[in-house]
Amino acid sequence: LLAAAAQPVVGGTLPDYSLAIWHGWNAPMIMSLVAMGGGIILYLLLRTSFKEERFTGPPLVSRLNGKHLFERTLVIMMRGARRFERRVVTNRLQAQLFLLVVVALVAGWVPLFHSGLSWGDRPKIPGSGVFVTLWLIAIACALGAAWQAKYHRLAALTMVSVCGLMTCVTFVWFSAPDLALTQLVVEVVTTVLILLGLRWLPRRNENVAPSPASVNRARARRVRDLLLSGLVGGGMALLSYSMLTRPTPNTISSFYLSRALPQGGGTNVVNVMLVDFRGFDTLGEITVLTAVALTVFALLRPFRPPKESIPLPAQQRLLARDVVTDLVNPRSASDTALGFMMVPAVLVRLLLPIAFVVSMYLFMRGHNQPGGGFVAGLVMSVAFILQYMVAGTQWVEAKMSLRPLRWMGTGLLCATLTGLGAMALGYPFLTTHTAHVHLPLLGDIHMASALFFDIGVYAVVVGSTLLILTALAHQSVRSHRPTSLPKPITTQGAA
Amino acid sequence: MEEVIAIAIGVLAASGVWLILRPRTFQVVMGLCLLSYGVNLFIFSMGSLFIGKEPIIKEGIPHDLLNYTDPLPQAPTMSMAGSLTNDAVEPFDPNEPTDRRAYSVAAADRRPDVDTGGKASTTQSTDQPAVDRTWAGNIDLLVHLGTERRHHRFNRRLLAG
Question: How sure is the predictor about A123, in pLDDT bands with cuts at 50, 70 and 90?
């Protein structure tokens, strides 16, 4: 019977088995008897306790509460994680940057100790006295900026700009006109934006007396940082010198040089690389630029200038009341360009159309000559920044409707659509097509689809620069909203 | 010339690193600027330096590295130079006080975390076993609450320590 029932369940031959009612006195039988006997004895012993309902659950196990166990484990894990976090994590930027630099330094020096360093035998470029002198000045400026950035911000900024200009000169010197153009315009924009931010930094408080212990700690930290930066600088110098004395490795560069004109359709190889061969990279880059501009805007939106930087600068406050000058307060004037700023204002306003023409010129020649969407966009935004500087935020925004967000959106859309257009025609994303169009009056015009991509780059650059600018410029509008007309403090004989 | 460029890169990088390790916002911004000049020059100089060989193709000159400088390192440097603006402006939040502890964010966000954790579990546990209304049940409840309380007190001590 059992075999018949088990056959379909097991499905196949049944394993060996033996069935019997009585197997004799073997180990399982005895163990069962012992367990039953033990149970009966325990019951008899604990009968009174059971009657008094002393037990509410199974013994021992009832003490183990699942919820408690879970919570305790959770708490212990949280505590461990927190302790670990406290050990290894820091919120301080200084410590984070220090670790970052140390790791980079170690990563750079370890291979150096492993395999040593040797100079190559490439013939050297003959030295030029002018170049060396210029760089000596720039090196002095870099060191000076590092020295003075603590309290003399304007001086430090000026010295940093000298280094930037010298970098630009180096690019021109060693056949990189595109780079030099970009560096120059970026330099201008950066300096202006930092100058705008400089207004809101607090003045130095000379009355701070640090404790002797903290002075010692600061001194130790400075020695440490000096050593670290010396090592980094020395490493960089050695590395670049050993690279500079080697001949050019045979890499993919010749590929770009030989393909730029036949396949990219432009003679400026760097620009062709940017908008064509590495177009996808550039697309990502302008997306990042947009994101950065939006982030700066969002970060500065809730910001209100600190109290100590709201009052007028000392130069404007120290005017006697009876002095007749339009220097008193440009903010109370409806148009700042009417007073002492008239001459620069006229010049700057005339500059706007000229800057537009220059930027168009740079833009159109970008594919074949130094230039391109990036530089052109920056030139345009410099012109707008100048308007802000001369006429003030309110005037500019009342007269011109600059819509940075629209610029940025249109730019990104334009660049992406150019790429998608290539896909629609059956080519990979961002493939460029070049054509020469003959227009009636203008003659032959060089048209590449990269031109539309460059329009996108142009618009994004203009838009994001303007957005960052407005984020900074609106601080001055905001800070003076609560106060009514600021009053110049009258001091006797200060005029 | 190579020596000059190498020393310049070294000095720019060194002063940049020195400045980004300083405690004040403005110094860090200036440091980033200097560092990015150094890095730009470094990447640019990775292609060999040539004078008067712009990578702009002219008629009748063979397209190879003998007649033009290497365009490859110039393109990424271009991207880097572009992002310099962002580097410089992004960390420039004038909101930050410029004292020595400018960057140490107060660890105030830790406390509420602990408190809510403890409170949440206590409220959960009290409403659970209140079913048995007999005398033994009440004792049971008291004992239970006692162990619960001990449990939570211990948990809280663990978390705090």
Answer: confident
Q: What does the pLDDT read at residue A418?
A: 83
Q: Residue B28 has which token pair?
A: 């860090």
Q: How far apart are CA A382 and CA A403, in angstroms?
A: 16
For residue A126, which amino acid is it? P
The pLDDT, as a whole number, for residue A148 is 85
- Of the candidates A450, A465, A467, A468, the one whose C-alpha atom is nearest the C-alpha of residue A283 is A450
Inter-chain CB proximity B14 and A299 less than 8 Å: no
The DSSP bridge partners found for residue A104 are none
Return the SS3 of A442.
Answer: coil
**Contacts A257 to B, Cβ<8 Å:** 55, 57, 63-65, 68, 71
Q: What is the pLDDT of residue A476?
A: 67
Question: pLDDT tens for residues A323-332?
Answer: 555 555 445 5
d(CA A375, CA A95): 37
Banded model confidence at residue A301, pLDDT cuts 50, 70, 90:
confident
Q: Please state, in angstroms and rounded to a whole number, the distance separating the CA atoms of residues B30 and B87.
A: 10
By the CB < 8 Å criterion, does B47 face chain A? yes
* Partners of residue B50 in chain A, C-beta under 8 Å: 125, 174-175
| pLDDT of A250 | 66
A359-392 per-position pLDDT tens digit: 988 888 777 777 778 888 888 988 888 888 777 7
Query: B131 at the A interface (CB within 8 A)?
Result: no
Euclidean distance between CA atoms A198 and A200, whole angstroms: 5
Considering the entire predicted model, what is its pTM?
A: 0.70
Contact A290, A464 (CB under 8 A): yes
Mutate to test the interface with B, among A183, A224, A277 (most CBs of B within 10 A): A183
Considering only the beta carbons, identify the residue of B37, B70, B151 that sits closest to A248.
B70
Q: Three-state DSSP class for A292?
A: helix
**Residues within 8 A of A (CB atoms), B 11-40 only:** 11-31, 33-34, 37-38, 40
Distance from CA of A48 to the nearest CA of B (A): 17
Task: Give the residue from B19, B42, B85, B139 with the most A CB atoms within 10 Å of its CB, the best one to mutate.
Answer: B85
Contact A460/A408 with Cβ under 8 angstroms? yes
DSSP characters over A452-482: HHHHHHHHHHHHHHHHHHHHHHHHHHHHTSS
Q: CB–CB of A260/A269 below 8 Å?
A: yes
Q: How far is A456 from chain B (nearest CA, A)?
A: 15
Mean pLDDT of B18-41: 87
Q: Sort residue A286 into left (φ over 0), alpha (ψ -120 to 50) or beta.
A: alpha
Answer yes or no: is pLDDT of B73 > 50.
yes
CB spacing of B65 vs A253 below 8 angstroms: yes
Alpha carbons B52 and B50: distance in angstroms, whole number: 7
Name residue A445's beta-bridge partners: A437
Chosen for mutation from B86, B101, B105, B128 (greatest number of chain A CBs closer than 10 Å) is: B86
Q: Which residue of A has its CA nearest to B69?
A: A175
Asked if A270's CB is within 8 angstroms of B6's CB, the reply is no
The tens digit of pLDDT for each residue in A218-276 reads 888 899 999 999 999 998 898 888 888 877 666 677 777 777 777 766 777 777 777 77
Amino acid at A312: L
